[in-house]
């Protein structure tokens, strides 16, 4: 699988890169928890500078893009604390790539080509499906995710066998959308083909640019196969001011939830200020991909040593 | 009682939920890459036997339930309660009709059952997988008919009714699988 991926990008002239797994800055997204460690200068064991294990190589790769690298890809380890289950391991392998000059449509086409090539021999995939998030929500659940009031969301959840939803989600729209999507829409996506869901609500955290003409949406894509989320991609946000504002919004959310406040990545902001080329990027979970290529039911079946035995 | 969170949930763990003891049948961690983490949990309510599915926010905590399964001998039914005895300690327990539920049609005195105790009180009774019971009533069959087809209803000493082959007669002892309620064989 790894060799086939490298061949795919090599043929398309995309450069393989490596960026540090450890960083002085952490991810601010309130739904991602970084592993934290510390740096000690030689002989200064008591003097700790915080370091974070990356939750994805996104920030470092964008700094390379801003420095003029052109299209790049990376296969690396990423780490997310407090995530463990049949489809989650705190340490996992990501394939992340950025294509300069690509819009979301080009990126979707390339991802489909990569996946179909990988699956061709074992279990050929049908032609992909593409849905708008908002339309999909309306079609499957009968409510507009951006306009619907909490009472109607509660009614919708009850009809789906989720009477506990109101208590879990309260008046937090992103949580409502995540719960209903994960419970009632996602399991039906990507049956024997890739399903691409595009144009996510801007209220869900992301590093995607706003959709021209629709400020309530962002140019983001999520990819599903057999009801499992495989990848998440953006038409990348170039605006340093907007990015800084989103970091601050994330930190405010973390403050309200009483969570740890990481150092925000000022080097990424600085890189955006010097200019990120127009590009799209996507991160694909390779452990999950391998799981689906081999028909395994759990990540534990494809990982040599899952976290409990690591 | 100890406190556990969704992170410690594993199959067979017994917790208190809505004031009832429940056992966890499955637990799925659900988290969109950029979204809120949930646990989708399937539980069996140990009092009612009902299976329910419920979603929790990851990290939510619960009290564990003091539930144990104990092998006990069935003694007698006094019209109100079913009485069981722990063979080692000779300690006796009285189970309410709701706890005995469907198990009552298989309970024969002296048989060893599994009694589920919650805080020391019986909340469920599981009969042995196989019981041997005497037929108290069945239509006379045709002698020499050993074919498996057809069959006829037979009432057993405990009141249970099972389908038996035609050659089985009143007064005979048969072996029954209590999990399916089906006739297994004749006991000589």
Structural overview:
The complex is a heterodimer of chains A (310) and B (188). Chain A has 310 residues and is of the alpha+beta class. Chain A contains ten helices and twelve strands. Chain A has one domain (2-41, 48-125, 192-309): BirA Bifunctional Protein, domain 2, CATH 3.30.930.10. In chain A, the strands form two sheets. In chain A, strands 1, 5, 6, 7, 8, 9, 10, 11 and 12 form a nine-stranded mixed beta sheet that branches. In chain A, helix 2 (58-66) runs parallel beside helix 9 and helix 8 packs antiparallel against helix 9. The radius of gyration of chain A is 20 Å and the shape is globular. With 188 residues, chain B is mainly β. Chain B folds into three domains: 3-63, SH3 type barrels (Roll), CATH 2.30.30; 67-126, Beta Barrel (OB fold (Dihydrolipoamide Acetyltransferase, E2P)); 131-187, OB fold (Dihydrolipoamide Acetyltransferase, E2P) (Beta Barrel), CATH 2.40.50. Chain B has one helix and 16 strands. In chain B, a hairpin with a 4-residue loop joins strand 15 and strand 16 (182-187).
